[in-house]
From TrEMBL:
<feature type="region of interest" description="Disordered">
    <location>
        <begin position="114"/>
        <end position="137"/>
    </location>
</feature>
<feature type="region of interest" description="Disordered">
    <location>
        <begin position="59"/>
        <end position="93"/>
    </location>
</feature>
<feature type="compositionally biased region" description="Basic and acidic residues">
    <location>
        <begin position="59"/>
        <end position="70"/>
    </location>
</feature>
<protein>
    <submittedName>
        <fullName>Uncharacterized protein</fullName>
    </submittedName>
</protein>
Length: 137
């Protein structure tokens, strides 16, 4: 009898798996996979280089160094904590005094780029930048 129970307990009938669904691709966040998905200076610089201030700001066209009207910095979607729909706390790199000093020098160099200080363009932050966008990814 025990042998029969062991056989029955080990029996698993074939399970039907649900059909695979194809979903429409919605808004995408900026791709920083080349940087291990870490939202550090190099990832932000890559997004900044792709940013077109003449095109409307969206989830992958934004200046990652721009601060909002509350002084916060954006996540990988361009969303701001406590203000934008869909803010996701990004994975941040390790920091140290030496790293911060090196980044300060990089920021000083980046600030020489005319695009760095552009204001009032469609790609810049405004409190209503998400008004016509779908939900963030």
């Amino acid at each position: 009898m025990a042998a029969l129970l062991a056989l029955v307990a080990g029996y698993n009938p074939a399970m039907h798996r649900p059909a695979v669904q194809v979903r429409a691709i919605g808004a995408q966040m900026a791709d920083i996979s080349a940087f291990g998905n870490v939202w550090g200076f190099e990832a932000k610089k890559a997004i900044f280089d792709k940013w077109d201030p003449e095109k409307p700001r969206d989830y992958d066209n934004f200046n990652p160094f721009e601060r909002n009207d509350e002084g916060s910095m954006s996540d990988t979607n361009g969303c701001f904590p406590g203000q934008s729909r869909g803010y996701k706390s990004p994975i941040r790199p390790d920091q140290s005094w030496a790293i911060m000093q090196a980044e300060k020098l990089k920021m000083e160099e980046l600030a020489k780029n005319p695009k760095f200080s552009i204001k009032g363009r469609p790609g810049n932050f405004s409190p209503s930048w998400q008004k016509d966008l779908k939900a963030p990814p």
